[in-house]
Write a structure and sequence with these properties.
It is a single chain. The chain is built from two helices and nine strands; from the N terminus they run H-E-E-E-E-E-E-E-E-H-E. The protein has helices at 2-73, 170-175, and strands at residues 81-88, 91-95, 99-101, 105-116, 122-123, 127-143, 147-158, 165-168, 187-190. Strands 1, 2, 3, 4, 5, 6 and 7 form a seven-stranded antiparallel beta sheet that branches. Strands 8-9 form a two-stranded antiparallel ribbon. The radius of gyration is 35 Å and the shape is elongated.
Length: 191
């Protein structure tokens, strides 16, 4: 009889060991599944954040292009301060800032004067450059309605038409030089 009991005890021990193995396997799969689930959620949230950031950068770039379009029509429309943008009748114009975009983003265009140092480089102070403006396009929004985010791009725009007149002599004009002398003039050149 003891021989018959031995295999029975061994069989029971093996079934018990199998149950422990199954519980361990279920625990490992559960931990792995939870990790994959949270990783998936994190990837989806990051993808959403990247999409919002990219859209904001596109709106900021659109703002710079709109200001460039306004500059091409008339450089004098680039007045210092904060502006919003409006597109109507196939033309961009400035409106009061901030501008609402799609009820989610806000855009502000900041136009500032530019100064140059003695070498002609842009500097914080120095000689005022009336033909150049610094343009900053800012787009801001609240991520998940709580976290403030901002996308900011800037550029410098010049009065490329160069409507400043400089009086020169005929010989200076024909040679393409300006010798800082005021003589009897016969032509103007644009710079």
């Amino acid at each position: 009889e003891s021989e018959k009991i031995g295999p029975l005890v061994t069989a029971i021990k093996q079934k018990g060991f199998s149950l422990v193995e199954i519980l361990l396997a279920i625990t490992i799969i559960a931990i792995f599944s939870v990790g994959v689930f949270y990783l998936s959620i994190d990837v989806i949230q990051r993808d959403s954040k990247i999409e919002l950031d990219t859209l904001a950068l596109n709106y900021a770039q659109e703002g710079l292009e709109a200001v460039r379009n306004i500059r091409d029509r008339n450089f004098l429309l680039l007045t210092n301060g904060d502006h919003g943008l409006n597109f109507s009748n196939d033309s961009w114009s400035f409106i009061e800032a901030p501008e609402d975009i799609d009820g989610f983003y806000s855009r502000r265009i900041v136009i500032e004067d530019v100064y140059r140092d003695g070498f002609g480089n842009i500097a914080a102070d120095g000689i005022f450059d009336p033909d150049t403006k610094r343009i900053t396009a800012e787009v801001y929004w609240n991520l998940r309605g709580v976290f403030p985010r901002t996308a900011r791009l800037y550029t410098y725009l010049s009065n490329w038409r160069g409507e400043d007149l400089i009086q020169t002599t005929c010989s200076e004009f024909n040679l393409g030089t300006f010798l800082n002398r005021l003589w009897q003039w016969c032509r103007y050149k644009y710079v």
